[in-house]
Amino acid sequence: MDRRSFLIAGGLTSLAATGMTAEPAHAAQASKPLRINAGFLAVDLSDTGRVAGLRDLRTGTDYVAPGKSVPLVSVVLGDGRQETPTRVQISPRDPKVLVFSSDNATVEVKVVKYPTYTTLEVVSLTAASGVDVQTLLWGPLPTKVTQTVGECAGVLRDDAFALGLRPLNDKTVGSWPNEHRSFGFGPDIFDNPYSLQVDIHVEWSAAAKTTWGSILRAYTYDYSKVRVRQRTSGYEIPLGPLPGPEGRIIGSKVALFGSGPDLVLTVLSQIAQEQGLEYPTLGGQWQKTAQRTSQSHFWVHDLNTSTVIAASQYAKQAGIKNIYAISGNGPWISHGHYQFNSALGGSDENAAKLVATAAKEGIEVGVHTLSDFIDSGDPYVSPPPADSRLSTGLTVKLTRPLAASDTSLYVDSGKPLGPGVQGKRLRIGDEFITYTGLTQAGATEWQVTGLARGQWGSSAQLYPASTGVDRIIENSYGGAIGDLPIIDEIATRLAAAYNNTGIQATSYDGLESASETGWGAYGFARLVNGVYRQLDAKDGFISETSRMSSNTWDAQSRASWGEIGYTDYTQVIKNNIFYSANYLPPMMGQQGLSGSSTLQMIETTLAHAASLDAGVNFETSVRSLASGSNTAAVLQAIRIWESARKAGAFTTEQKMLLADPNKYWHLSEGTPDQEWSLQQLDSAGNPIGEAQPVKAPEPGFTTPTPPDARVGELYAFKTTSSTPQTIRYEVTSGALPAGLALNKDTGGVIGIPRKAGASRFTITARNDGAVPDASVSYTLKVKPDNEG
């Protein structure tokens, strides 16, 4: 192990683990290398602030990618130049502050160490006279990890070690600016390493896979004045200004950590709780560890006030606890203002009555949304005047007058009307206009042809030369999308709708629209986190999403991509590899279900779901279930398969068999929720061979004896229940060694022991009531810090 002397930023904890001694922290020693300890990760910095090492403190293994030298912190100036520090030193005023200096800018970063992670926060940024600092870049930290890249979780791992970076507020965006890809290894990045069909996620991700390894990164943009941002297409969109601290780089904040792979969720749980991030729960259990997060739902196309009881009863027959309004992309008069339509009673008050009716049947209700899509009939658009806060590109000006009857117009620039965003729609005053063609008519003039005047309920008008013309950015259905103030209003409205009605599940379908405004992952955060923060009851609320970002990872429950039958099963498996890499629950996507569905089709989906331990969104309708002859059989099959899956009854070997796309299976029930029989079938439904027993595991623990700890050194150990029905872990007798704590959601035991000796304690896995609790007792020895 490298045994150079290091100055230690963020405290002296874990020095015994490194075998090094701390030097006095003062400016005269600024030439010595610096080290930031973050859990089991040591970030070594050169005297110019460049990342010189990313070491596992336990083994000394250096994970920094060879030949990839980057500054930990840099800035981009208003003219597009990257300004990298020429020196870094510990502040003489505060030993927790690192000062990164260059000719044009000085950035002060406060380093605060917690046992399992360390936070870095920009507390001061000063620029030379006349210098405009536009962007602050964190890294990207280059690693040689290739095994698993959790793009949205911001976690890289192999079998021995995990490194992570988490953005700690909305304005610290866990991804990279499109304008500055060349500063972040852009040509080396795999845009879609998991071959996702739904969309590439690299644009919104704190981690990325490269040709030589992987990176961790984040940035904060200065919006104290209007900035022109670029989408991935290169299209330019003016944004801002944002008021107060939200528009400034100061306050940009990330958490760094290193841990064993099995302790990642424990560290992420601690970061979220201690740093005030979103922490959705189900029955008090963190959703990232709750099996219920992957529960199956019924997506009911004709859910309304007259069908809610029948829909609830069908769901109960299938063992499903949530019915979800999907018809017309949700039960709304229009997307934008999100007022309930007549299906749910036309008001929050009547929707609450529908929810209460379902609750009497033991069923929860969810609703589908289209995020910040704005329908053409929504009040944000129609009738005139349209809201001025719709998302637009750069403004151009008429070079000639435009009469009400004209079908072509002339403007002073063509680029804002060219490719790069969806739709060909303009707004002049209160009039919406679509066009078909754009050609250059002169040195500084462009002709726009094929005009359709007076769109979206507006009327054609006369406009003089020099009138401003805005390019409207459309959503994928041909409507508008809202800029940030409308995104905030939609977040407030959706939260109010859920608070007023008791709705407990939702989607953010079309969430990419919040990024297409130009705001990127920051737009995601303002919508998704904005809804979560305004919920009155955060426990029990499940959200799905069409896209996942690092800035919404904490608040979002799950993704469930693909329509089974249209989406190839191979793609569903790829999706679930992505979910696993990002600590999201396994999900199958949507499966069509009717009363005429064949038992073989449904059981094939359920077998694949069991192989992945994945939930399914069953798309159905009361009408189809009521009229079909096979309804009772398929609902019973869902209930039986789901009960076995929830019990964790399938062995690893059985899951491998169930994953085979060329095999057919039937599961029958023995003792409810305890024993089943699994029979292979041929394509005609005839048995093949003998049936296999399927049995729920006995409640207990699968954890080995904990290793010894040492005073003053970070200690980590994970207890693991044998059943997925565990909802929390508790110390029920004795006590952990002083300095250690048990995470109730993950079973991780972690901390820094303060006193030598042996401690005996009992940990109990509290299960969901369907199976008994289980307990295990341990003796943990803490060695003195001077013992070999």
Automatic annotation (TrEMBL):
Origin: domain of life: Bacteria
A GO cellular component annotation in the UniProt record: membrane
Signal peptide limits: none
A single GO molecular function term of this UniProt record: calcium ion binding
GO BP, one annotated term: carbohydrate metabolic process
Coiled coil start-end: none
Protein name as it appears in the record: Uncharacterized protein
Organism: Streptomyces colonosanans
